[in-house]
């Protein structure tokens, strides 16, 4: 019975995911859900980088911007097909991620986070100032929407596309996590010197983690550009980077689905606060930030941990059995 | 290029840079006492400026009482930071990353609070240091008076800090705690007190720096995030995050580089300079350029 309960739960959950666009009352909610899925892809990359490999990035919006602007410029100015545009955006941000991995050989968490902040800010300032290429503060307009034959993608179609890629991302991350690469990353995260003595190339592991998470951010950026149809530098400011890290931490860094939970929660929370309470337009950001602070302060393991503990109780199963390192307390490991 | 231009830029660079150094000191004191970086460091600057604006312009208090009141409130905010953010996270077993996220969100929180209360538009700062366009004449040279005042206040403040850290018992305790917490505790130093003191010192210094910067940046949200905070981090990093004097010197260096790059290159990329300096220092000498404290080990 308990076993069946889990199956029933998962089946219902998947069914809801499949019919979700038709449950929303208007198109805007579908649009918000699409943005949530984009954030899920991005935050999953950060979970990979920070939770698995122990590196920190506060410049993720920089990669996001690289992916978005590359694809937008290539498709709208040069007429490159959209999949190719997105692919080159992913490629460019991956390369940037590989380059940004170099400082991580030498620098530990805080110093590294300062370098990544600098990266994000430099990209942002370039977006603002390279008017001829990026359109400056005014932004880029008439970015082509995706189409399939003569069918131009609606928000609902984007939802299914993003859902497929989100599932793919999580699945790839799961495969990596339980492969020899994932174990290497965890070893480097735990103790770099000990990992090196076991013959693990810590530099290679870090480069891989940075490249992978930057590539995911670039993919998210490309999706965002073609869904929104226009780009301004606004969504790529530093506070977005910090928001992405907040998503990863809030969802739970040690969980595959930490990015999923964090991304969906932190995209919907401000929207729900904004839409449901009247006369609240000026205050929802305060409440949003306050709630995030409270969650981080009082649930340092993230919402994911709590959720799975509850679900595990429901079907009487140790929720830890599928994590790589169960029950090991790694607090304060990140130097 | 006249001598006067160069001198004006040098004076402006040194005095603005010294305030960046004060912001860096906020980072340094917290790093020394709790080994964390407070990403909401710059929020204290914005808070003190808006409090000063509220007391002085809106409530009509004279300069000195409103300055003291706003700095006192910012000092209380330092204790708030410790007992409502840092201590609960540590007690719940949260690591450094949780502190990073909490302080980043705190930064957003204060920005949106100020935005909701005062609105987003910059407001004129009361002319505490005289008219910003007023020039002081030295022989054939004319220098903007505001910068001289800022510089004077910073020098007095640094002198006071030097006295506090080097000549008083509490300063000695503070330095001992920074060097080795456990050993300091064994010597009978009240580490709890010195940690609180470090929080209060950090927020008040940054708050004062904010009021000093306000004649240049106005009473705006710009003081609460973005590039000024990073300049503070950059100056702290130049001091290796542990040397207070190195942080001041780092700030001055950044101020001078920034001002002369406006003069010689362009003001468009003014803010990139701080980041380039930061990255260069981190990659070249991660332990800081002006770091005399940890040179021994």
Describe the fold and architecture.
The complex is a heterodimer of chains A (335) and B (297). With 335 residues, chain A is mainly α. Chain A has a domain at 24-238. Chain A is 71% helix and 1% strand. Chain A has 14 helices and 2 strands. Chain A has helices spanning 2-23, 27-52, 60-77, 82-101, 109-129, 131-134, 155-177, 180-190, 192-197, 202-228, 238-251, 258-276, 284-298, 303-314, and strands at residues 147-148, 151-152. A two-stranded antiparallel sheet of chain A has the order 1-2. Chain A is globular. Chain B is mostly helical and 297 residues long. Chain B has one domain (3-284): ABC transporter involved in vitamin B12 uptake, BtuC (Orthogonal Bundle). The longest helix of chain B is centred in the N-terminal third of the chain and has 32 residues, at 3-34. The A-B interface holds A 50, 56, 58, 103, 106-107, 109-111, 113-115, 117-119, 121-122, 125, 129, 238-239, 242, 245-246, 249-250, 253, 282-283, 285-286, 289-290, 292-293, 296-300, 329, 331-335 and B 37, 39, 85, 88-89, 92-98, 100-102, 104-109, 112-113, 115-116, 225-227, 230, 233-234, 237, 241, 268-269, 271-272, 275-276, 278-279, 282-283, 286.
Shape of chain A: globular
Report on the biggest sheet of chain B: 2 strands, antiparallel
Average pLDDT of chain A, rounded to a whole number, is: 86
Please summarize the sheet with the most strands of chain A. Answer: 2 strands, antiparallel
Encode the helix/strand succession of chain B as letters. Answer: HHHHEEHHHHHHH
CATH class of chain B: Mainly Alpha
pLDDT averaged over residues of chain B: 86
The number of distinct helices of chain B, counting runs of at least 4 residues, comes to 11
Give, in spatial order, the strands making up the sheet with the most strands of chain B. 1-2
Distance between termini of chain A? 45 Å
Shape annotation of chain B: globular
Q: Biggest interface, which chains? A: A-B, 46 and 44 residues
Cα separation of the termini of chain B:
45 Å
The CATH level-2 architecture of chain B is identified as Orthogonal Bundle
Order of helices and strands of chain A: HHHHHHEEHHHHHHHH
Helical content of chain A (DSSP H or I, runs of 4+): over 70%
Number of helical elements of chain A: 14
């Amino acid at each position: 019975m308990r076993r069946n309960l889990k199956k029933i739960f998962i089946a219902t959950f998947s069914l809801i995911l499949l019919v979700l666009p038709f449950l929303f009352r208007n198109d805007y909610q579908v649009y918000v859900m699409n943005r949530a899925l984009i954030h899920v892809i991005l935050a999953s990359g950060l979970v990979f980088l920070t939770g698995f490999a122990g590196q920190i990035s506060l410049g993720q919006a920089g990669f996001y911007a690289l992916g978005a602007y590359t694809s937008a410029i290539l498709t709208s100015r040069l007429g490159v097909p959209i999949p190719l545009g997105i692919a080159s955006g992913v490629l460019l941000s991956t390369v940037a991620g590989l380059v940004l991995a170099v400082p991580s050989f030498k620098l530990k968490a805080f110093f590294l986070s300062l370098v990544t902040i600098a990266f994000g800010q430099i990209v942002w300032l370039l977006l603002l100032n390279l008017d001829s290429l990026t359109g400056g503060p005014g932004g880029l307009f008439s970015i082509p929407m995706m189409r399939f034959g003569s069918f131009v993608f609606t928000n609902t179609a984007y939802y299914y596309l993003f859902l497929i890629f989100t599932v793919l991302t999580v699945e790839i991350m799961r495969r990596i996590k339980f492969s020899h690469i994932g174990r290497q990353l965890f070893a480097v995260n735990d103790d770099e010197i000990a990992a090196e003595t076991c013959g693990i190339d810590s530099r290679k592991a870090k480069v891989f983690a940075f490249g992978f998470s930057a590539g995911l951010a670039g993919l998210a950026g490309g999706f965002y550009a073609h869904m929104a149809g226009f780009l301004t530098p606004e969504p790529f400011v530093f506070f977005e980077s910090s928001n992405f890290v907040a998503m990863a931490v809030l969802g739970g860094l040690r969980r595959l689905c930490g990015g999923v939970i964090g991304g969906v929660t932190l995209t919907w929370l401000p929207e729900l606060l904004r839409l449901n309470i009247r006369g609240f337009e000026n205050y929802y950001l305060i409440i949003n930030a306050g709630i995030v602070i409270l969650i981080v302060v009082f649930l340092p393991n993230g919402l994911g941990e709590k959720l799975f503990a509850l679900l595990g109780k429901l079907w009487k199963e140790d929720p830890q059995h599928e994590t790589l390192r169960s029950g090991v307390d790694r607090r304060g490991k990140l130097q | 290029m006249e001598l006067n231009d160069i001198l004006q830029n040098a004076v402006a660079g040194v005095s603005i840079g010294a305030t960046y150094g004060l912001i860096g000191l906020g980072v340094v004191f917290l790093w020394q006492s709790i080994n964390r970086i407070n990403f909401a460091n710059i929020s204290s600057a914005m808070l003190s400026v808006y409090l000063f604006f509220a007391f002085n312009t809106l409530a009509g208090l004279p300069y000195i009482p409103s300055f003291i009141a706003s700095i006192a409130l910012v000092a209380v905010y330092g204790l708030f930071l410790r007992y409502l953010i840092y201590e609960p996270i540590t007690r719940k077993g949260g690591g450094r990353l949780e502190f990073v996220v909490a302080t980043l969100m705190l930064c957003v929180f204060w920005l949106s609070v100020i935005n909701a209360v005062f609105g987003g538009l910059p407001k004129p700062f009361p002319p505490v240091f005289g008219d910003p366009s007023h020039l002081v004449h030295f022989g054939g040279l004319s220098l903007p008076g505001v910068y001289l005042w800022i510089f004077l206040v910073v020098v007095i403040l640094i002198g006071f800090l030097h006295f506090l850290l080097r000549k008083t018992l509490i300063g000695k305790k503070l330095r001992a705690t920074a060097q080795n917490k456990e050993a300091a505790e064994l010597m009978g130093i009240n580490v709890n007190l010195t940690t609180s003191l470090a929080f209060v010192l950090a927020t008040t210094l940054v708050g004062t720096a904010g009021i000093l910067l306000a004649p240049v940046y106005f009473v705006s949200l710009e003081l609460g995030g973005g590039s000024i905070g990073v300049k503070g981090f950059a100056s702290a990093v130049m001091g290796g995050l542990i040397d207070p004097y190195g942080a001041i010197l780092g700030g001055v260096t950044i101020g001078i580089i920034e001002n002369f790059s406006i003069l010689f290159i362009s003001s468009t990329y003014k803010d990139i300079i701080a980041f380039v300096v930061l990255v260069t220092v981190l990659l070249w000498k991660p332990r800081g350029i002006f770091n005399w404290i940890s040179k021994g080990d």
